[in-house]
């Protein structure tokens, strides 16, 4: 009868060791995936920041053109008033 409890304990221990192995594997996979996700987020963030900078440059250029046109219009209006 004493052999049976020892066998049960050994089986329980083996089962727990298997579970620990599985959990350890899952943990390492999760760590790798989190790292890859963090890298992907960083790359996406950098891309979005570059896109934002490019948009800001385009907006600045467009604003500069608008200001130039407004100044031209203002100067033409002023000349017309002076001629009249």
What does this structure look like?
The protein has one helix spanning 3-83. With 84 residues, the protein is an all-alpha fold. It is rod-shaped, with a radius of gyration of 36 Å. The mean pLDDT is 92.
Query: If you compute it from the alpha carbons, what radius of gyration comes out, rounded to the nearest whole angstrom?
Result: 36 Å
How far is the N terminus from the C terminus? 122 Å
- Report the count of strand segments: 0
* Sequence of secondary-structure elements: H
Biggest pleated-sheet summary: none
Number of helices: 1
Report helical residue fraction.
over 70%
Structural class: mainly alpha
Mean pLDDT: 92
**Shape assignment:** rod-shaped
Taken as a percent bin, the fraction of beta residues is: under 5%
Low-confidence stretches: none
Summarize this structure briefly.
The chain is mainly alpha-helical and about 80 residues long.
Layout of secondary structure:
Layout (H helix, E strand, L loop, with lengths): L2 H81 L1
Please describe the structure with a list of short key phrases separated by commas or semicolons.
single chain; 84 residues; 1 helix; rod-shaped
């Amino acid at each position: 009868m004493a052999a049976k409890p020892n066998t049960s304990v050994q089986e329980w221990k083996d089962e727990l060791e298997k579970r620990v192995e599985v959990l350890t594997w899952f943990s390492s996979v999760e760590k790798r995936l989190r790292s890859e996700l963090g890298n992907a987020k960083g790359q996406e963030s950098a891309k979005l920041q570059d896109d934002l900078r490019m948009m800001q440059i385009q907006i600045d250029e467009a604003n500069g053109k608008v200001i130039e046109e407004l100044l031209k219009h203002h100067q033409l209006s002023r000349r017309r008033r002076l001629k009249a």
